[in-house]
Each structure stands twice: as C-alpha cells, then as structure tokens.
Design a protein that fits this description.
The protein is α+β, with helices and mostly antiparallel strands. Helices cover 32% and strands 13% of the residues. The chain has a two-stranded parallel sheet.
C-alpha cells in the first residue's frame, strides 16, 4: 500500500464550445443563409439571425404570395414577451 499525498487527480476541464460568431468571423466571405417560409417562424428566425450574426451572413427570406395567412402565429403569444426581451423590442412602441 502506497501513501500518495497531494491533490487528487482530476479529469481535464472540458473545453468550451467555440462561439458561432467566432467561427464565422474567420470565414472570408459572408455565408449565405436561406430562410424558407415567411410566416411567424420564418420572420422571427430571419430577425434573430440578422440581429445576432447579420454582418457575417447574407440572409434571404423566401415567402410565397400564393400562400395566404395560416394563422398559427397566434400560438406564439406566450413566448413572444421573452423574445421581445431578448431582442430588446419595446412592446410599448406597438
């Protein structure tokens, strides 16, 4: 039996995942992103990408004039306040 003194051995700390913004910053050309669908989800996705990574991406939103209002956006009402808070949207402006 050996007596070992000193700090217990620990596994190495996990490395933090690289930030997407940092990864994209090393790319010389803007990355092209297409958001398919201009409904609530499409517009919110495009807005999120523009606000967070807009200067690194070329974003195109594709929507159809032939598809009418579906009306599913009403289901987003409970989560919209959080979205507005994250993106600093002042609800009083509406």
């Amino acid at each position: 039996m050996r007596n070992i003194s000193g700090p217990a051995s620990r596994p190495p700390a996990p490395r933090a995942a690289p930030c997407l913004r940092d990864m994209l910053a090393s790319v010389e050309e803007k990355i092209r992103v297409v958001v398919a669908g201009g409904g609530t989800a499409g517009w919110l996705t495009a807005y999120s990408l523009v606000t967070r990574l807009g200067n690194l991406l070329e974003i195109t939103l594709v929507e159809s004039d032939q598809i009418g209002t579906v009306g599913v956006g009403e289901a987003t009402v409970p989560t919209m306040r959080k979205f507005h808070h994250i993106f600093k949207v002042d609800e009083r402006e509406f």
